[in-house]
Design brief:
It is a single chain. Helix content is 67%, strand content 0%. α6 packs parallel to α9 and α15 packs across α16. It is mainly alpha-helical. It contains 23 helices and no strands. It has three domains: 68 residues, no CATH class; 178 residues, no CATH class; 100 residues, no CATH class.
Length: 451
């Protein structure tokens, strides 16, 4: 027999099956697909009718102000004052496009869109890690590839030069940490968790609504195993506060108001709760569009103006509780169906796809909640952190104003639940007649979405 060492080596055959089992391949596909649609949108943009033009003027203007050395200021045209209207992280990142590459419009807008595409593509990794850990490898791969081709995950990074794609990535990473830390007593890991929460708060403060619930979940998991938690959680809290403290002090001394991150809640609350609201909110009254409100803002300063608008909103709600409940209902519907986005979106309307977009978002949400129920039924304790995202995160937007871009940070979690729902439905109609014994019960728990 010929010696095996002398035989020519065979090249491994390329397999699409192996390719689709790689989350890195999904990341690459997601990036290429989003970049293609970015190119397509700029090829067909219509500056006259605002078709396929990216939105996010405030972030871009603050980024320019930072790059020019004017500080975190100038969020609106002709408003040249220091501001805390936006959270700082995303405008800082965009400002590097001008600082490092000397970009100007429209190149700076494209730079921000490319950043968003990178964030959106990298979100495949936490989606895969979360879904695989809780529901098994097949659910992880399915959710990862669904995210790569998900229409809203393609649209949001291109249409909005805003923090929603970065927020989705950060929330995914925070959830991965949340599932890892109940088994870890490493101070470095808990320090990193606090720092990551600080970065998330300085990117999108709404994410912090989930913090106490995720911490309580970790505490309970560690308590079941008799693992010490107090010092580690104190360390996390300390680093979280230390990261927020400089920005909070900056807001207090430069703006004259105690704003931990952003100053605009009062006006956002009022835009959704005033006599002129018809459905969800009144964008025509925003100071950037309304001369009267702009004048009030300039004359009173951000802290005073926002306190004034918050008082007006509360007075309106007390005087019109039925109207508030009606607006609340409209915003809940809009959050999960994209009803008003499908009517007003400047990318969807030129394509004549408003009705399709509405039904796509509605079905996606229904499947996500079906997957949530399936996850709670089969693995209730492990599914709770993901359930918190769907049930708690949108609450501020029910109260103030709604949009699919506000919901986008939890879309990766919804994607996992959609795939879990589809897998559960498929398993109900196709149960194997013979099941092989599994020697490792932990492996069994990680590979099947059903009990």
């Amino acid at each position: 027999m010929e010696d095996a060492a002398l035989m020519p080596l065979r090249r491994p055959r390329f397999s699409f099956a192996l390719l689709f089992r790689s989350p890195s391949a999904a990341v690459t596909a997601a990036f290429l697909l989003r970049f293609f649609f970015l190119w397509l949108s700029h090829q067909h943009e219509d500056l006259v009718h605002n078709h396929f033009v990216s939105w996010g003027l405030e972030a871009l203007m603050i980024a320019k102000s930072l790059a020019l050395g004017h500080g975190f200021a100038e969020p609106f045209p002709h408003y040249v004052f220091t501001t805390a209207w936006l959270a700082p992280v995303y405008p800082w990142l965009v400002s590097f496009g001008e600082l490092l590459f000397h970009l100007r419009d429209p190149a700076l807008t494209i730079f921000a869109q490319v950043l968003n595409i990178i964030f959106s593509s990298l979100t495949c990794y936490p989606i895969y890690s979360l879904a695989k850990r809780i529901y098994g490898t097949s659910i992880g791969l399915g959710a990862t590839w669904l995210w790569a081709f998900l229409p809203t995950a393609i649209l949001m990074p291109i249409e909005w030069t805003w923090d929603q794609s970065l927020s989705a990535l950060l929330l995914g990473l925070l959830l991965c940490f949340t599932y890892h830390l109940p088994d870890s007593s490493s101070p470095a890991h808990w320090t990193a968790y606090g720092i990551l929460w600080g970065v998330a708060a300085l990117t999108n403060p709404a994410l912090c609504l989930l913090l106490p619930f995720l911490v309580a979940w970790m505490w309970s998991r560690r308590a079941q195993r008799a693992l010490p938690s107090r010092r580690l959680l104190t360390r996390t809290a300390l680093y979280f506060v230390l990261l927020l403290l400089p920005w909070t002090l900056r807001n207090y001394f430069e703006l004259g108001g105690l704003f931990f991150v952003k100053s605009d809640f009062g006006v956002a609350f009022w835009l959704g709760n005033n006599p002129q609201v018809k459905d969800t909110y009144t964008p025509q009254l925003h100071p950037m569009r309304n001369y009267r409100e702009f004048t009030l803002l300039v004359l009173n300063s951000e802290p005073v103006y926002n306190r004034l608008k918050q008082r007006e909103a509360l007075a309106f709600i007390r005087a019109n509780p039925k109207s508030f409940l009606k607006f609340f209902y409209h915003r809940v519907v809009d959050t999960w169906t994209g009803k008003y986005d499908s009517l007003l979106d400047t990318y969807i309307q030129p394509l004549g796809a408003g009705r399709i977009y509405f039904w796509y978002n509605t079905i996606f949400s229904v499947l996500a909640f079906a997957g949530l129920l399936a996850g709670l039924w089969t693995r209730a304790r492990e599914s709770l952190p993901l359930a918190f995202c769907l049930l708690l995160f949108p609450i501020p937007y029910y109260i103030a104003s709604s949009s699919l871009r506000y919901r986008h940070p939890i879309d990766p979690v919804m994607t996992i639940f959609v795939v879990l729902a589809l897998a559960t439905f498929a398993a109900l109609f196709h149960r194997p007649k013979v099941s092989l014994p599994v020697s490792d019960p932990e492996a069994e728990n990680h590979e099947s979405p059903l009990p």
